[in-house]
Amino acid sequence: MYHPGVRRLLLIALSVALALVALGREARANSRFPASNALFFSPTDPELLLLRTTFGVMVSPDRGKTWDWICERSLNVTGDEDPMFAITPEGTFIASTFGGVAITRDRGCSFSHAGGEPEGLVFVDVVARPERRGDVFAFASSFDFQNDAGDLFFRSALYETTDEGRSFTRTGPFLDPTLLGETVDVTATDPDRIYLTTVRDYQTSPKGVLLVSRDRGKTWTEDAIPLEPGERAAFIAAVDPKNADRVYLRTAGQPEDPSRLLVTDDAGKTYRVVFRAQSGLSGFALSPDGSKIWVGSTTDGLHMASTTDFAFQQRSTIEVQCLAWAPDGLWACSSERSGFVAGVSHDEGVTFETKLRFCDVRGPLTCPPGTSTHVECAGGGTGAAAISPWPTLRGLLGCGPDAGTDAGTGDAGESAADAFDAGGGCSASTRSASPLVAALAFAAALVAAMRRRR
What is the pLDDT of residue 33? Predict the structure, then answer.
């Protein structure tokens, strides 16, 4: 995922080139490796799961027995952003996107965006209150302007809905415009406490900043997050369910760079390092009582520790791309090389039961005609939208008769990676001798250098 300010700036520049070459929406290339990278659970329906991937969202109505696909275009997102989701007690999905807050009340068939002040802002994170899951905070951080000295300024604010996404209200004034927003989290023991992570001077010498509110977002205090050379940001991994002052943060640079897990026991005044990873920490989970912790990455595998001593021990060598604790066990996103892209462990991470491989996805989510998912994902529209992108995508994933010539020679992840890296994705290839397209590719490469996963 890109830093929102960087992406907004590049979109302005790239839009000119896109207009000149008349590239339509169908010509976008999703050049990311197909992967799963986040899991979301319903607070009231134990069967309902969402799995975020780099090419859309998978939804399961039966705790992972079956999965259906919601394409990116239904949410009006592109392949370079990773929306965060909150599922409310009524079953509403609320997602942070670079085009606003996306909302669906029919489990993924029809998406709309929140109106009013939040409309069109870049949203980077959402979180539901533990004790009132219908109350959701959405964190916006958009590029605002650049001064003559080249300094970037942002328009960042926290919004809250107390009616499951029907309306959003800004909690307080806009934040310091020198800060670029990253993540938001709330506490289970202090209903008025909110944490934000932000970055100052990220384009030159990034400085991590933790903002703490004790009055539900009306005012904020600021404390530094210690970053090491190469680290560009810090993301909130969790707040201890029993102690509002204990916060876990993951540092991040490039995905392949080392990462650290930090813990503060005094709401950001001081920190200690409890785990160092060889690459970006892409997975974190905390037990409901806060006594056990799991972390992982694609190179480090899965590690577990008690939160009394943080003596981590490796539990598995799977490629960890996300972690989430649920009543039935420890859930993980991984790669086809690990045997699953979504799985659950009933022995605290030693073994995993496969819940999904990409070739098991049934296809686009079945939705009524006229809904965004039916039109954009299932070919329910007219013209170009009358052709579903699913058969092409399934082939790129190395699945079934639509697979490319390399299908069957390796696992689905490898076949898909070859196809996506060739400029495939869910849309047409952009390989061309055009200088403008070459310029776009160069700019995309620059942006890719700053991609990070929340």
Answer: 81
Contacts 24+ apart (CB under 8 A), 404-409: none
Counted residue by residue, the chain has a size of 454
Task: Count CA atoms closer than 13 A to 187's CA, side-chain side.
Answer: 23
Angle at 68 (CA atoms; ends 66, 69), nearest 5 degrees: 150
Residue-wise DSSP of 386-397: GS-SHHHHHHHT
Question: Rounded to an integer, what distance in angstroms lies between the CA atom of residue 412 and that of residue 403?
Answer: 10
The predicted pLDDT at position 422 comes to 31
pLDDT at 119: 95
Q: What angle do CA 133, 322, 143 make, to 5 degrees?
A: 70
- CA atoms within a 13 Å half-sphere pointing along the CA-CB vector of 143: 19
| Residue 50, number of CB atoms within 10 A of its CB | 20
pTM recorded for the entire structure: 0.84
Query: Where are any strands of DSSP class E within 179-243?
Result: 179-186, 194-200, 207-213, 221-225, 233-239
Print burial letters for 337-370: b (CB count within 10 Å at least 16), e (below 16).
ebebbbbbbeebbeebeebbbbbbbeebbebeee
Query: For 199-225, what is each residue's pLDDT tens digit?
Result: 999 888 999 999 999 999 999 999 999
> Quick one: the chain helix, strand, coil %, rounded to 5?
15, 35, 50
The interaxial angle of helices 4-21 and 435-448, nearest 10 deg, is 170
**What CA–CA distance (Å, rounded) separates 137 from 126?**
6
Task: With H, G, I as helix, E, B as strand and everything else as coil, classify residue 207.
Answer: strand
The pLDDT assigned to 325 comes to 97
Q: Are 39 and 61 in contact (CB under 8 A)?
A: no
Buried residues in 102-120 as b, exposed as e (16+ CB within 10 A) = bbbbebbbbbebbeeebee
DSSP string, 247-316: EEEEEESSTTS-EEEEEESSTTS--EEEEEESS---EEEE-TTS-EEEEEETTTEEEEEETTT---EEEE
Neighbours of 300 (CB within 10 A): 24
As a whole number of angstroms, the distance between CA 180 and CA 201 comes to 9
Which residues of the chain fall below pLDDT 50? 1-29, 404-454
